[in-house]
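Shapes recur. Our protein:

. . .
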Amino acid sequence: MKTHKKSLVSMADFSKEDLASILDLTKRIKSKPLSKSNILKNESVALIFAKPSLRTRVSFEVGVNQLGGSSITIRMDEISIGSRENVEDIAKVLSKYVKAIVIRTYEQKQISDLDKYSTVPVINALSNEEHPCQIVADLHTIKETFGKLAGLKIAYIGDGNNVAQSLIIGAALSDMNISLGCPEKYSPVPAFIKLAKKINPKIKIEIVKDPKVAAKNADVLYTDVWTSMGQEKEFKKRKKIFSNYQINDGLLKIAHKNAIVLHCLPAHKGQEITAKVFDQFSEVIYRQAENRLHAQKAILIRLLEG
């Protein structure tokens, strides 16, 4: 991570040691939710939202509160980064008021620019390119289920979106093999594959068109919505293209017999996952959502500790 201050703009901001430390802290926080509860005493955290949110907003607000602080939620239309006010001024002013800035937006560049001028940690709570906070929670969920990460195979089925791209980096940092089953022209950006291979040349990373090939012997089957926020006009087109990219009984039979299914939510049952499979793995999926709270508290603590 950066030496002058630590931020989480990209999953690649973590080293393998950073991630291992945060996952260990996540485990300890989950066992004792109010541990280190005063690290944000008399401090505030700004939460900037350009996209709708349930899990991200609530988990961060609750997490900040449990760490002894308060959160200030700001809608993007209230500050209009880059139009009403330039990003440098916003970053420098907010840095005078708050201990950290959490931002959920469309453009990754907005987060990078905010981090460039901010003097407090900036946390990517989702962009069109990445979703690192989600992946930390996912990796914790997998580790608490299997007792390890190294050597496991995760199969991601569907759109090679922000979650998929951060997941590729997370797999590389965790010594996990990853296979992605994506339709043609809907694969992750090649730069993420290249970066993951640079981080960890020993693991297997494959992008395939056939979801059955991706799911073969997988320990974890993972999916996300076919149509992300901002892509609503493409829904009908995407529904047709992704119709065969569904986690169902057929894919489960191909995966490892003890495989689990993860979904970052919200889920559109009957599309990317059948209602039957969702219900079968609802415990671990809801636990995955719960772990957002514990993981984000761990992220905040590590970043604020410097």
Remarks:
- The chain has a mean pLDDT of 95.
- The chain is about 45% helix and 15% strand.
- The two ends are 10 Å apart (CA to CA).
